[in-house]
Amino acid sequence: MTQATAVAHPNIALVKYWGKRDATMNLPATGSLSMTLDVFPTTTTVTVDETLAADSLELDGCTLEGTPLDRVARFLDIVRGLAGASAHARVVTTNAVPTGAGLASSASGFAALAVAASAAYGLDLTPRELSRLARRGSGSASRSIVSGVAVWHAGDDDETSFAEPTAAPDMAMVIATVEEREKPVSSRVAMVRTAETSPFYPAWVTSTAETLERMVDACAAGDLDLVGRIAETNALRMHALIQSCDPPIRYLTSASLTVLDRIEALRADGVLAYATIDAGPNVVVLCDPAQAPRIADDLAAVASTVVARPGPGARLVEAVA
Ligand code: PMV
Fold this sequence. Notes:
With 321 residues, this protein is of the alpha+beta class. It has two domains: 2-168, Ribosomal Protein S5, domain 2 (2-Layer Sandwich), CATH 3.30.230.10; 172-308, Alpha-Beta Plaits. Helix content is 38%, strand content 24%. The strands form four sheets. Strands 8-7-9-6-1-16 form a six-stranded mixed sheet. It has a four-stranded antiparallel sheet with strand order 2-5-10-11. The relative contact order is 0.19. (3R)-3-hydroxy-3-methyl-5-(phosphonooxy)pentanoic acid is lined by residues 13, 16-18, 32, 104, 106-107, 138-140, 187-188, 278-279.
């Protein structure tokens, strides 16, 4: 029996990944850029056990079967393929992020699983190889392997599609949670519907590639205001795109719009604050670390708020008994 435990944090994209070029390999239609957070960790222990008849999955003390277990078992098949192993594994995971509420729980989940499973099966992978492996579980997980700000290169194939660190100004994020329930349509399903039915999808793909170049430059120049402006435009474009599916999907609620209104009011008051929103109703405010407490105070009237700073990439830890 061999065992390994890993911790990973979610990441929030400032240039979004929305759409796949290759669903089997999880190759994205465009590159993306994100900040790994220092809050809401996922801790995952993988125990490889020759005596098990099948893989098993426990999340926050509950045994899971069906789709979540199938996804994990398919991912373990990839790890077993790399390791030349056949034994099944027990996966025990705890998530400090509300699962499925558009706060990137799949990113921290598959990043932690990639690090723990590869170690438990005896693989010694480089950060780039870990990022490529995590990508196979969930695209955005490729970025949670990286500390701080990461750029995920779209790449041409499995080998060239990975995330790596990129220079960026000091920043903070205020996470404004308005809804903790599971989102109605998964990002996986919504991405396919977008690509198949939205007339705007080709324009999203070409414009996002250009947006990413501008974002990487703005980050390297340390221009936080420009980083925020590009991020908010990109997020609102993604939601406009998603709403243009047939049948339409709308993740934004009236509570999300209330938060967006307050961010505009803060900006009118001279506060550097810009919104981004993943595939859910919760809003994340990109800001200067010095102004984060003031923004969190203001938004506390309409959302529950947590201030996040750049956090560590996924890593192995000692198992807690
Ligand atoms: O990695 P997935 O399949 O959970 O998709 C993530 C999609 C967004 O969170 C909306 C955007 C992103 O780049 O993280």
